[in-house]
Specification:
23 helices; two-stranded antiparallel ribbon; mainly alpha; disordered C terminus; single chain; 2 strands
């Protein structure tokens, strides 16, 4: 017990430690100064950009928690009577069952904000790599490994579940289960692409400053115009890059935005005004999450998400000073570090916890245990209890799965991989994830090939040296 405790203490100290020589140490906040606009236009030229802004980490951690809560809340799980004393499971989408809840997505859809702060964090990491004489191949290989390593166990477990369930359950139920966990992988594929092109985004930022996001935004608007004229156009998929790259690019102006945060209300007013006009006058849907029967703002993304991201960014800037003061207190900073160190694991497994809970509800319904009808007052009143059950299911899963992500964060950064190999690995990783998002885990044979590609990539991108990492975990190099 004492050995285990000492290891836990050492790991906590490592998470919370900082070094005066390491500008990325997680426990050291910054106070962005008002600097020369020429310096902020070129992030590489600004040495302060390598320092840590705790608000960025808190926003990313908070965004992940909101995503999890949103997914759990959107799943309308209940039961209905069969008339013979038993019940059957009732599953629906709350956004479709109660259309008024679509307005809640203007608060709960926080992926735009995540890509904004993620763009800043990637820029910081890439700039620091450049200052240290690092290579893009090592940098992208490290990030690919950190994104893919925690993903592989989840996919492997679910592939085994699908194989085991085929002779027992209906194909419809199996399909619903594996699609529940494979569809959210879209984020991983898109984030891999945005991360890979970070050097390009940094160069654009250096040349165009504030206006660096304009080309991406203009391309996204053009795609939306084409898309609303032809709903079936394949070009709509390009907005998976244009929209999220525009938001990541905007995040690279983070320090300048913080320095001018007294104008936060302009972003809020402009973002929400644009959003209201898009929805009220334009052809955009109210929901910032896809709803059956409507043109989705999410898959593929539309410029409505850019407007929403601007408004959310303004709100964060308005609270930046207060958030920074709170995060100086370790009572508030420690949870951010913990969520940050296991962010991908949380994102990947939270729907598995939901699937387990749904199975428990179905089992209870078969023996006469009823659940509130989704959307009723009683159903809403029991959501805190429902969340408590889901958290209780999720915690043991995270305890087993999170160490995989932590080990990937502690691995050495130098892989010694060639540039062509790193580029090929990025393409293969995006391709494998893309296949799993579109097709899921059935047929099993093809899904197994895609998962095997990811496993080979993780091994291929492994560092040449296995020496143990002795520095602090750098949260800005995580996907979450």
């Amino acid at each position: 017990i004492s050995v285990r405790r000492s290891r836990r203490t050492a790991h906590h100290d490592e998470l919370m430690s900082h070094s005066s020589e390491d500008p990325g140490a997680p426990s050291r906040p910054i106070t962005p100064a008002i600097v020369n606009p020429a310096d902020t236009a070129n992030p590489v030229a600004n040495p302060d950009l390598g320092q840590r802004d705790r608000v960025v980490d808190a926003v990313r951690a908070g965004a992940l928690v909101v995503v999890v809560a949103g997914h759990w809340l959107m799943a309308a799980i209940g039961t209905e009577s069969t008339g013979d004393g038993a019940y059957r499971l009732q599953i629906s989408n709350m956004l479709e069952l109660r259309p008024w809840t679509q307005w809640l997505t203007w608060v709960l859809q926080v992926m735009p904000l995540f890509f904004i702060v993620g763009g800043f964090a990637n820029a910081v990491s890439w700039q620091r790599t450049q200052h240290e004489g690092g290579r893009w191949a090592d940098w992208i290989a490290t990030r690919l490994r950190r994104l893919l390593a925690p993903t592989l166990p989840m996919l492997a477990v679910w592939l085994l579940i699908v194989v085991a369930a085929q002779p027992i359950l209906e194909r419809r139920m199996i399909h619903a289960g594996h699609r529940l966990v494979s569809k959210p992988l879209w984020f991983l594929g898109v984030y891999l692409v945005v991360t890979a092109i970070t050097p390009l985004l940094v160069r654009l930022q250096a040349r165009l400053g504030w206006w660096a996001a304009a080309p991406w935004l203009a391309a996204a608007v053009l795609i939306d115009v084409i898309r609303f004229g032809d709903h079936d156009t394949a070009l709509a998929g390009l907005n998976f890059v244009f929209v999220w790259a525009a938001l990541a690019q905007a995040g690279m102006s983070w320090e300048r935005l913080v320095a001018n945060r007294h104008r936060w209300w302009l972003l809020v007013a402009g973002g929400y005004t644009a959003l209201v006009l898009m929805v009220g006058i334009g052809p955009y849907s109210i929901s910032m999450v896809g709803v059956a029967g409507e043109v989705s703002n999410m898959a593929p993304p539309s410029v409505a998400l850019v407007a929403l991201g601007c408004a959310q960014l303004g709100l964060i800037l308005g609270c930046w000073g207060r958030l920074r003061r709170l995060l100086d207190d370790d009572r508030y900073w420690r949870p951010v570090v913990k969520v940050g160190a296991g962010g991908m694991t949380l994102y990947l497994w939270h729907l598995t916890a939901l699937a387990i809970a749904v199975c428990a509800v179905a089992l209870g319904a078969s023996v006469g245990v009823a659940q509130p009808t989704p959307g009723t007052a009683l159903w809403w009143a029991t959501r805190p209890l429902w969340f408590g059950v889901l958290i209780a299911i999720l915690f043991p899963i995270l305890a087993k799965a999170a160490p995989v992500e932590v080990r990937s964060l502690l691995a050495p950064k130098l892989t010694g991989i060639h540039t062509w190999a790193a580029a090929l690995g990025a393409v293969a990783g995006v391709g494998a994830i893309g296949y799993l998002v579109v097709e899921g885990l059935q047929p099993v044979g093809r899904a197994a090939i895609a998962i095997a590609v990811l496993a080979v990539l993780i091994r291929w991108l492994a560092p040449a040296s296995t020496a143990e990492h002795t520095g602090p975990i750098e949260l800005d190099e995580q996907p979450a």
